[in-house]
Amino acid sequence: MKIVLRLERRVKLTLRRMRRATRDKGLADRCQIVLLTAKGRRRAAVAEGVGCSVSWVNRVVARFRDDGVPGLFDRREDNGESKLDEWFLCTLYDVVDGSPQNHGYPRPTWTRELLAKAMHRLTGVKVHPATVSRALARIGARLGRPRPTVGCPWPKRRRNRRLAEIDHTLAALGPDEIAVWLDEVDVHLNPKIGLDWMNRGTQKLVPTPGKNVKRYLCGAMDATGLLTWVRAERKNSLLVIAMLRKLAGETYPDAKVIHVVLDNFSIHDSKIVRAAVAELGGRVKLHFLPPYCPQSNRIERVWLDLHANVTRNHRCAGMDELMRNVSRYLAARNGRTRAALQKAA
User: Fold this and answer.
1) What would the 3-class secondary structure string for 176-245 be?
2) Over pLDDT 70: what percentage of the chain?
3) Which fold has domain 156-193+207-344?
4) Where are the domains positioned within the chain?
């Protein structure tokens, strides 16, 4: 059915001017509905052209007939002050950063309904869970997977003193000294399963060989981001020794001292590793981080990227293929780093 609506020329010009000038998409759509209706378009055609429902076309036209041009504006402005003010959002940011158990709830994870209830208790402002969703988007919150961690057993003062000593040593490096961050990573033939995009109603399948096979990489990254690595079938002190010898003999043969920052893993401080360091004649110095401080080891980020780009959800049939992909990724990463360094120079 057609909706009969006649507009004066000045009203048409007003609606067109509003449609062009406004930043409110809803107001622009309402202006367009009235203009198309005045041309004699059928309501279904108007709804299809604007991208809305036929019932909404009827409501907009009815509001225009009753109130004229002012009836096209958003009436929610009369609802009062917004509940999502700066104070509410700052409080929500602090609440999301904690746990429901900090507020007396037994549940360990937040839901929108529980956040609405907690915010009502803290602020006295009662909001719908849908409003909580908008508030979470405004503070930049996301639904993610927490990272498990273990607290450092050292006293805070001792841990901070050790980290400060390492930072002071690295800041005072001479022109013939190099600093690297060293760590190992496990590569499994049975792929780690991670998040991936899927179509609605489907679930991707990741084939696994069943019997797992492992390989190990020991890597060292310098301050420029360049990576050196060695691989082995076992993760032991021999892998660490091979890494130290490669650093001193191949990667940095002209360096007087190579300062290696690493964690307190037992294979890093074994007797044979100490003997290998002594054999290198003082060219390698080990600086051990406090226990359970992975955030202070810069190379940890490289391993996270390696898992995200190569090993997670991989479909390699054999370990040789997977290790080739690992080596190819790390070599490409070094290539990008060298190109960036040349461009910066």
Assistant:
1) CEEEEEEEEEEEECCCECCCCCCCCCCCCCCCCCCCCCEEEEEEEEECCCCEEEEEECCCCHHHHHHHHH
2) 97
3) Nucleotidyltransferase; domain 5 (3.30.420)
4) 9-79, 86-138, 156-193+207-344
